[in-house]
Amino acid sequence: MLRFILGCAFASISSSYNLPNHQPTIEDQFTIPAILSSNKDVQTHGSGVLQLPVKVHNVQLQTLTSGEMRKRQSIDPLANVINGYTIDISLGSPNQKVTVIMDTGSSELWVDPNCTNSYSSSQCASFGIYIPSHSSTFQDLGTKFAIQYGTGSVNGEYFTDNLNMGGSPNGIGAARIKAQQFGVANTSSYTTLGIMGVGFGYQLDTNYYNIIDQLYVQGVTNSRAFSLDLASIDVSQGSIIFGGIDTMKYIGALEKRPIIPYRRAPDRYPRYWIYMTSAGVTTPGSSSSAPVTGAGYNQAIFPDSGSTLSQLPTALFNSLLAYFPDAVSQGGGAYTVPCSYRTQAGTIDFGFGNTTIHVSYHEWFWYDGQSCWFGAQSTQSTFLLGDSFIRSAYIVYDQDNSNVLLAQAANCGTNILAISTGVNAVPSVTGGCTVSSTSSFAKATTSSKS
């Protein structure tokens, strides 16, 4: 989907996403595993787990030249700072290292943005480039692709080549995917990095095996599932674990929430749509959350690592914002607040069935180097939970069983378990962390109604 560019790709909080022109070709994702299983050419080898570091990519205004600043002029004030999470990959034979934005809100991989037309040519050049002719294993498929964003665009051709991931001291395992299909940009505007989408692939959002599909088909993982831990806003990197979970990165049980079939989703598009069942605010000094939603609340929403801020329905947004009367509108549904809020021990609370994810003020109010922003924007459509929420949640994306599982994020060590196959593929293991093992700002608790 590559929908909101500084909302997707650089996760700049812009709400101007644009959908690619893929249409689902089957009724329902539950039939996909059988199709992929019949094409799986090898058994899972090794541990079935691939852990990769995801690194914070944060560009602030003061780091750009005056010329680059002019390129970035926008009516959206939040298009003036770029923030996201990146992964290093290598393409071709021999390897050509490229850094890409990791995006749970899209499904395709593309590389080589046009640095001359980007907002920062110097930044862009530092992320590496893939040159097909320098590889002995590339194939030009002769098929064009084009994606138009709210801010920026990309056009190019599809290629296949070998793709390597992992093998770093900060990860576990390594993967070599043969003949992965991806886009190589011929022209692009604004963007400085390519994007690796980890959303639904074959027969839902693509007509070829995307990264998640290939990791399964080529025997790297047992199933099409992965977990994401972005870590605290004060930490330079988190991790994504394809085919596994880390039980020392969350508190309590993983809450299993069924993914809404795309034909019943708000935009009728295959994403990680789930229902959020409550929202509230725990003000500093209070021992309980003040709800801003009523009984029976069910809001379709999806967690999207490609957006810095969350995008909330207007009514919910206004109810949360009312707790911060000194917030100042900056246009585009975005608000700044006094940075003093970030040191207060309050939380914004989001409920999913029996589990509530508490997002500390420190994590929710985003500091861009100059101003502090309320962690969401108001929108009339495409409701999502961006990095302002995801940093406080440990999330497992289980495509094979069409579930998203969530728990309160924490960090008390490492204990990685493989995700297997079948209905209960994701290990049902209570997190090893307790409230005291988290940051003093987090007030991280997992509440249960049972």
Automatic annotation (TrEMBL):
<dbReference type="InterPro" id="IPR033121">
    <property type="entry name" value="PEPTIDASE_A1"/>
</dbReference>
<feature type="active site">
    <location>
        <position position="304"/>
    </location>
</feature>
<dbReference type="InterPro" id="IPR001461">
    <property type="entry name" value="Aspartic_peptidase_A1"/>
</dbReference>
<dbReference type="Pfam" id="PF00026">
    <property type="entry name" value="Asp"/>
</dbReference>
<dbReference type="GO" id="GO:0006508">
    <property type="term" value="P:proteolysis"/>
</dbReference>
<keyword id="KW-0732">Signal</keyword>
<feature type="signal peptide">
    <location>
        <begin position="1"/>
        <end position="16"/>
    </location>
</feature>
<dbReference type="InterPro" id="IPR021109">
    <property type="entry name" value="Peptidase_aspartic_dom_sf"/>
</dbReference>
<feature type="domain" description="Peptidase A1">
    <location>
        <begin position="85"/>
        <end position="407"/>
    </location>
</feature>
<protein>
    <submittedName>
        <fullName>Putative aspartic-type endopeptidase OPSB</fullName>
    </submittedName>
</protein>
<comment type="similarity">
    <text>Belongs to the peptidase A1 family.</text>
</comment>
<dbReference type="GO" id="GO:0004190">
    <property type="term" value="F:aspartic-type endopeptidase activity"/>
</dbReference>
<feature type="active site">
    <location>
        <position position="103"/>
    </location>
</feature>
